[in-house]
Amino acid sequence: MENKLKQKFEKKIQPARDERKELISNHGNKVIGDITLRQIYSGMRGMISMVTETSKLDPEDGIKFRGYSLDELLNLLPTYKGGKQPMPEGIFYLMLIGELPTKEDVELISEEWKKRSNVPDHVFSVLDSFPKDAHPMTQFSAAILALRGDSYFMKAYNDGVRKKDYWDSSYEDSMNLIAALPRIAAYIYRRVYKENRHISPNLNLDWSGNFAHMLGFDNEEFHELMRLYLTIHADHEGGNVSAHSSHLVSSALSDAYLSFSAGMNGLAGPLHGLANQEVVKWLLKMKEYYNGDIPTKEQVSQYVQKTLSDGRVIPGFGHAVLRKTDPRYVAQRNFALKYLKDYDLFDLVSKVYEVVPPILEATGKVKNPWPNVDAHSGVLLLKYGMQEYDFFTVLFGVSRSLGILSQLIWNRALGSPIERPVSMPTDIIKKNLI
Ligand code: CMX
């Protein structure tokens, strides 16, 4: 399979190179957006400044992967035998090749990742040297760097590989890294929370199923949840903090390990991926505040007001691009409506969904009062017994590897240049106003 996928990818390269060359030489001077002073002071919001092939985020319609909405993909991507949820192998194929996968394509990727899933012992030694209370994202990022000794790209680069062939060793690194991540993540989980009682991989399972198994969850419903979870978190176009920081670092020809680890350091921030842990903390604190009972809508409303008046954000709500309920939230809510109907924390999440948007809207400043992906993911995991919420961002990170690394392979194939925008001090900006 490896060759099949790699060969298929290789066939896509030249036409894409020609297309990019043609676009730049025939339309290179076309202006595709103006930049305002407000934008450069506001985190470059809305500024078109990079090219990402794998997915595109629409403020109203949400994420589209190679033109397909999440809703469509939940029906179109191949599922695991007897299951209903999409397999993340499928979304990886779609992002890399640009076409919908067949069941066979997906099964072959599963097999390929199994073959590459061995993690060298020194990576576990690095993890064992961390204090157990080091945040799981710190351990995750460090373990990715520890894997780097195996970088095919760095070896090829040191051996003088030609630019047009950079993609080949980057493909190898990316496939190896994706294959190793579940084992690394599961090792962190079992080390920190389960007294180092590790579970050997079950290579009869798919990527998600084996990950769930190594974490210690063999319930088939949880395996299905993992497939959904690892699919929907995979990519959110190129400008979000994790994808963009990986992209920036890889543009200096840093290999897949250095680049992906950089992205994970961005994902670990509370305004980005760490929000999934913050949501659970906030929900559980709210429950505790009301003596362990699920609060009424009025009480939720009071608690939300209190959070805002304490000068804090409501975690899991708002977005820099989206302007409606995140389709990834809806996908998880639909899963919960099927499997978690009577779960009290799902009831709380549903109340929060009703109560928060009008309150955020009334502040007059929040541009998107609706929930994002992180508002829902935590309770799904809690329901199946995964209580250790400071681990949740690692799950997000495992999934995000699919988007970031398929894009990295493309960037190498297309010879994307080093990223180097221009910055300005305020006094020069002021002079330009006159
Ligand atoms: N609760 C309270 N205030 C919020 C808010 C929220 N959920 N979302 C935005 N605001 C505030 C901002 O802090 C900002 O306030 P100031 O002007 O006082 O600084 C104002 O509303 C305008 O912000 P915005 O333009 O609507 O939002 P941004 O693009 O600046 O920020 C985001 C987007 C996601 C960082 C923000 O909505 C937020 O902090 N949300 C909570 C954290 C969260 O859920 N992050 C996860 C996002 C998804 C992901 O990446 O995983």
- For the termini, the CA-CA separation is 62 Å
Shape: globular
* CATH homology group of the domain at 275-383: Cytochrome P450-Terp, domain 2
- So what's the oligomer here? single chain
Number of strands: 3
Beta-strand percent range: under 5%
Sheet of most strands: 3 strands, antiparallel
Short overview:
By secondary structure, the chain is mostly helical. The chain has 20 helices and three strands. It has helices at residues 2-27, 37-41, 70-76, 88-97, 103-115, 121-128, 136-146, 152-158, 166-193, 207-215, 220-232, 241-251, 256-267, 275-289, 297-309, 327-339, 344-362, 374-383, 392-413, 426-433, and strands spanning 55-58, 62-65, 68-69.
Question: What distinguishing features does this structure have?
Answer:
three-stranded antiparallel sheet; 434 residues; single chain; binds carboxymethyldethia coenzyme *A; mainly alpha; Cytochrome p450-Terp, domain 2
